[in-house]
Predict the 3D structure of the following.
Amino acid sequence: MADIIRLLPDHVANQIAAGEVVQRPASVVKELLENSIDAGATSIKLIVKDGGKTLIQVVDDGIGMSETDARLSFERHATSKISSAEDLFNLRTKGFRGEALASIAAIAHVDMQTKRTEAEVGVRLKIEGSKVVSQEVTATPVGTSISVKNLFFNIPARRNFLKSNQVELRHIIDEFHRVTLVHPAIEFHFYNNGSEIFNLPKTKSRQRVVHVFGNKMQDRLVPLEESTEVVSISGFVCKPEYAKKSRGEQFFFANDRFIKSPYLHHAVVSAFEGLIKPDYHPGYFLFLEVDPKSIDINIHPTKTEVKFDDEHTLYAILKSAIKHSLGQFNVAPVLDFNRDSNLDTPYAYQNKEAVIPGVTVDPSFNPFSDTTVKKTTGTQFQKVSSKGWENLYEGLVTQEKDDFSSVHIESETEIQSSLYAENDITSESGTTFQLQRKYVVSTIKSGLLVIHQNRAHQRVLYEKFLGEITLKKGVSQQLLFPLEMHFNESERILLKELQDCLRNVGFAFEDISEETVKVTAIPVMVSESRIGTVLDQLLSDYKEGFSMESISQAELLAQGLAQNLAVKSGEVLDEESQWALVNDLFGCKEPELSPAHKKTFTIISDLDLEKKLS
Ligand code: ADP
Ligand code: MG
């Protein structure tokens, strides 16, 4: 048989390589921004159209390229950044593989203009699907401008695989964050479909975080500084009270490169242990500097996964550094001269009175204490709660209580006891009690009904909100004094997307295009003091949910609101609320499952009991 192995032509090889480097428009943005930084730019402009599908352009004032270099830059394995294998162990630049431009040019229409300081004229090069279509002399400022149009024009399958413009834009913004946060000394501008969405002046690290994520960050950041032989760590963690239920802002950088490290993430989480609730996530912006020899960046084409030589030591140092600064921050206010006092007080409620719950669900509930785990008196529940393991619930914040009581008022009018029968769960005596502050137990004809209070309430609220969103009939309360809230650019993009749905459940906003958004009305079920947390949480849930994109916006929003507002495990419910929950649950279309498809209740039948007791 004849020899059958052939070398692939360059354009085919490039297309294959492109698959690794360029997954979506955001990958192009990352590569181009990194090249500009490596070229020593002090000002970088990013221009994007239609989520990057139509255009991605990066303009920098870096060193530029000569005519020959401009041509060479699009060759595979062509790089100015390393020349030998040893250099791999002493990397100071972001790029080094010499693959990005070749890959991008293989799958898009690229137009590059570049000029070095000493050159009289610049060069303009157009490449389409790896083929140079034109090269000419051009008048252009010092630096490089690369525009990438019609991404994946020659790979329709990949193009079809791209998500909506909004989703792609969000990925681009994520990459933009990752690059800009670690380069505060470089000025960045970001234009999306003609309007400027980020304008980041040259500044210091802390202010960069604030410029990127909005003024509300001012109050949240706890600085951190630690220098050892192995690593220097600087950056910020967010105060524990701003921890979020979904992973919010979590950034690790190693030698100025954004990295993902589940192991180091664990170190951060463990430093926060005891300070935040179990399923909450701390925010952090941590910059590590290690000897380039002790880190391997070349284990993945996108270079976000890295390998440190001495991870265990890093872990320990990081953990103790965080603990140290959290401790410091707890005892003494942080001295911080970077701070602009005009920007303090993110929400306008700090001086407002606490809202007293409309219905007193629990007589010992103290709305002014934020760690109230209440002791009720004389209920059946009390007997259970005195057990030692109940302490596990101590410390769980139960501020959602007031929301639940107002839910409860509304739902009471809708109670239809017949539903109980419809589901073949006929109440015998109507007795309910709470078990472990987690379950509502009710005696029914055929045995015992055990309801998971949190999941059940989520189901109830989910159906209620979904109904309101689709029927547009959410009940809202007008605020006498609109709440002023700060949202950063990416949050405002999400807010705009969600605006209609939010309006349907009872929210009203004034002018979302400004950083300070006025909230003029809120749903009746949400107390004013919690609006900030609820909206923040909703936006980050929504963002995360959308990366999965299996369900509709309305469903995601209803789910987010339900999760936020549902009564939690660990909260004490009085009998009236327990009873309302049972009824509301069986008034639902799908009472069996929570919105996240977990079981909401189970029945322990007479038969089960008999078996157990035999
Ligand atoms: P790498 O960054 O890994 O070297 P790239 O394909 O991204 O590979 O770029 C190839 C080369 O092109 C770089 O090494 C650099 O010399 C040059 N280059 C790319 N972008 C720029 C830019 N914006 N300014 C100056 N030179 C650039
Ligand atoms: Mg590069």
About this structure: The longest strand covers residues 476-486. The radius of gyration is 29 Å. Confidence is low (pLDDT under 50) at residues 331-363, 365-429. The chain is about 35% helix and 20% strand.
